[in-house]
Specification:
The structure is a homodimer. By secondary structure, chain A is of the alpha/beta class. Chain A contains 15 helices and 31 strands. In chain A, 25% of the residues lie in helices and 25% in strands. At the A-B interface, helix 1, helix 3, helix 8, strand 22 and strand 23 of A face helix 1, helix 3, helix 8, strand 22 and strand 23 of B.
């Protein structure tokens, strides 16, 4: 393996991780990174925060330079250098220097493709206006930053991760922000109820939301771009951020005849090898195994998987006997907008439904730490599991504090193949400033087991059928102030056992409360008294208005 | 099961959880809680925070009252009522009303013992002075609170959880605080280097630490108690907090002939049954299976296990066909002192050593979220694993933010039987405000795998042998300002490849840096150039001065 020649196309997350690990494993290899842009190894996840001013110094995002990579890792880095063609038989890569436009061929023993993914820029009328921008690299960031310094009106198209972060940061900077989303909710990867708090938070911070709406065309004027929406609305903007998703930069791979997936991603094996075993690929341009369902392939264009894939590939090149496979991607993600955080791991309910896979789910509410300790904030957790085995399939969390922690615990649990029964007995770190003796993750396990054990039947929808008795077990003041739709019967829980004669035993009952806990208690009482009863999962908070000023039930 | 008679001795965590779950499962059972103290179901973990004033309202800690438990759960609660004797043959419990001193016998079908554990109060000379207090319940809290309102000088004996929390809270309230600990470190459950930051934080907040020191006797004076220490020091105190551990309140069980463990804890099976199958026990008074080593028994006197044990027992009483066993306790714990948090899960290095069990360990340092995002704080993580299987055995974390999150992830990983290889591919929630593309948990997995793959040899001690070349690869300013003890050779890492001739290839090398990352890089370079090289694990930060003002290595 002396003097092995390694070429790396793309020098950001996957490419830079691959090269760094390669050098750790071989001092003698020639390792060259070819990067189309002017920068390598920059912190692409931080771009929105510099535009908004939260990360003040641009230098903070330029993690490494060609010079630092030479000094630390003895890597050769060629920026503004595009890979244009692969000669697989001759094991050569053609590159073009974008400054001089000169081309040359470089030989490789192993080639790593880490080209990433580009923001989608559809062929909408008027889209070529330079004020309609995307955000991928430091140059895009600089253009957007400049635009925010002269413009006041921003339209953000797409309410996924980048769209939400940009909406927040542009508001942070004082701009007027419209956020347009084709789906009927923000953060479309979440199930709709779990995105409700984020929706409310954005509106509270005066982000104008336009849901179930999309751009039909742009109209360029001297002083603004007019964005015409399918609803008929027209928004005037000084700058437009287009953040409707990314597509893999797999043209080089396609032209070389490497196998691509149905959406154009490079297909790799568990060691990140493409269909040409001397060519590896990693990062946003590849599809991998899905870690929830082994028979599925998935695409998770995020920094964590990219970094780890690069590392796996380098291990396989330099120590194939000890390299461990990339186990696939799970799709753990989180976004913050103002004071709210929300995220998911594994499969969502809508994705399970669309795939026709069986699942069960519960939603629970609690405080992020002991409710009696100052500063406790409400949070909501939803879990999904396989009805047969109890194995966790996915989880979502939304709230103000401790969202990342619960997602991380649940991601770990899913990766370990844990069941909802296992969640009951997670022994998590507890002192009043940090958690609760029964953490919300335990509570989710309890609720799921109650369902599995037949102790309670859950519904996630209030009944339409007037035959069904809706019993609101909240206190009267709350029941009056934030009434359940329809014709609920208010029986505060402590009065329930003495009030059974107010209910008709021959008609079904749905119990309702603020957070889903008291309605479960009530359902247990009624079930044991012979009622046909269903509990409204997650309570009104999770389903109607996430900011209902209801007191948390005492623990 | 109609009209089953259930008696519960003890109405705090385990007893209250048992009773609540029992009622959820049976509307018809007679359930009576017998509590020696005047309060039930109070938040015992919150007691120090009310003394310090952080939890302002005393009512916040009185989670439930006998009246609320009657209303919500139809429980009969008798406070100030002591269980004095069990007639196992007649299935009767003798109780004494502590107000009237009258005794009576109550019948049971099932009896739950949840008596808890009492603070240890050794037979030291002078210990009966009422100014020497312990902290178990609201009355103790009230006494201590009153004492802090007249006294100014506090001595806290024992630097475990309660001792550390009390030291913090008493300083918070402005008292002069001495903290005395028999061990040579604070938080003795941790391995010593992981407690160093906590030590430094306490001193910074003017808690006078007296380590490796203990009380020999107390001397009562009108205006103060004098605490004589084995070092010869004498401390004058207006109040003394005794927090040197707890012992199980298992006298009732012992007198009834129930099986006890070696340290007096009630022995239970996986459904919390004692050696009498109609008598269950749960909480601080019991010993359970250990979740790391199935052949071990353990005692974890904390709220989380207590609550979950109570629940398991109730399930077993009322639905034995569906009850799932209590899987044992892991011993996850966290403590905060001022701005620092530290904790552990599973087994520590000292515990593994004492038990003669094989293990390997690494310590890693990183930021709690992306280092380029404002507010990133350093944290240190130590993991321990089985050398054969790679299975995780324990973890410890110390730092300012995100400590609870990493402990929770690692507790989940340990409970799932994950290996260090699995840690590499945990896919955790990442956006710049929440984490990093490679979280410190992933980094710990990488470091452990590097060690398992033979890529690096770690040491946790600087060499004494003058034959060994200690190579400090930090920048010269840092190396000069915070020198490595002995005679290090300073070669900043970027200069290393060009400076190999400064080193003697015939003599071993130990590489040293601030955080353990650059020393690993250096060890890889040197190993590939034929050196016999060892990397100083965790760097100088984790081993010498946790507040060394060293720049974090760029990610």
């Amino acid at each position: 393996m002396e003097q092995m020649n390694i070429l790396v196309v793309g020098g950001v997350a996957a490419g830079a991780s691959f090269a760094a690990r390669a050098r750790r494993l071989s001092e003698t290899a020639h390792i060259t990174i070819l990067e189309r842009g002017p920068d390598v190894s920059f912190a692409n996840c931080g771009l929105p925060y510099h535009i908004g001013g939260e990360i003040a110094a641009r230098d903070a995002l330029a993690v490494q330079t060609p010079e630092s990579l030479k000094g630390l890792l003895n890597l050769e880095v060629r920026t503004q250098c595009e890979a244009t063609s692969i000669d697989r038989v001759g094991k050569r890569l053609q590159i073009r220097n974008l400054r001089t436009q000169q081309s040359e061929w470089l030989s490789y023993d192993k080639l790593m493709l880490a080209p990433g993914a580009s923001p989608i820029r559809p062929n909408w009328p008027g889209i070529d206006d330079p004020r309609i921008m995307t955000l991928r690299n430091l140059q895009d960031m600089d253009h957007l930053t400049a635009a925010t310094e002269t413009g006041m009106r921003a339209v953000v198209i797409g309410a996924g991760f980048i769209g939400l972060e940009m909406a927040e940061q542009l508001r942070h900077k004082g701009l007027i922000v419209h956020l347009v989303e084709l789906q009927s909710q923000v953060f479309p990867a979440l199930d709709a109820p779990m995105a409700a708090l984020l929706d409310s938070e954005l509106r509270q911070h005066e982000v104008a939301l336009h849901l179930s709406d999309g751009v039909t065309r742009f109209e360029s004027h001297d002083d603004f771009v007019r964005c015409h929406l399918s609803s008929g609305l027209a928004l005037e903007a000084d700058l437009v951020v287009l953040s409707i998703g990314v597509k893999p930069d797999s043209e080089l791979a396609r032209a070389a005849g490497l196998q691509l997936g149905p959406r154009g991603h490079i297909v790799v094996d568990e060691f990140q090898r493409t269909s040409d075993l001397d060519i590896y690929a990693a990062g946003d341009a590849v599809e991998t195994a899905d870690r929830v369902f082994a028979d599925q392939r998935t695409v998770v264009p995020m920094g964590g998987p990219a970094n780890r894939q690069g590392r796996v590939a380098a291990d396989h090149v330099f120590m194939p006997d000890r390299a461990r496979p990339y186990p696939g991607s799970l799709g753990t993600a989180i976004v913050r907008a103002f004071t709210v955080a929300a995220g998911l791991t594994g499969w969502s309910e809508k994705r399970l439904q669309a795939a026709g896979r069986p699942y069960q789910t519960v939603t629970v509410n609690d405080s992020h730490h002991a409710s009696y300790y100052p500063g406790a904030k409400p949070l909501t957790l939803k879990i999904l599991w396989d009805p047969d085995s109890g194995r966790l399939l996915g989880a979502q969390a939304s709230g103000f504090e401790g969202i990342d922690k619960r997602l991380d615990v649940l991601a770990t649990a899913i990766l370990a193949g844990m069941t909802v029964e296992d969640l009951c007995h997670l022994e998590l770190a507890y002192a009043p400033p940090f958690g609760a003796a029964k953490d919300i993750v335990n509570l989710a396990g309890f609720a799921a087991c109650n369902r599995r054990d037949g102790l309670v039947v859950h519904t996630s929808e209030l009944p339409d059928d007037p035959q069904v008795q809706v019993v609101d077990v909240r206190g009267k003041p709350l029941a009056d102030a934030f009434p359940v739709p329809g014709h609920p019967i208010n029986i505060p829980f402590p009065a329930l056992r003495a009030s059974l004669d107010k209910l008709d035993r021959t008609r079904p009952v749905v119990t309702v409360c603020a957070f889903g806990k008291m309605s479960y208690f009530a359902a247990r009482v009624l079930a044991q008294h012979g009622f046909d009863v269903t509990s409204f999962s997650g309570g009104l908070k999770a389903n109607i208005d996430p900011r209902t000023p209801a007191k948390l039930p005492s623990a």
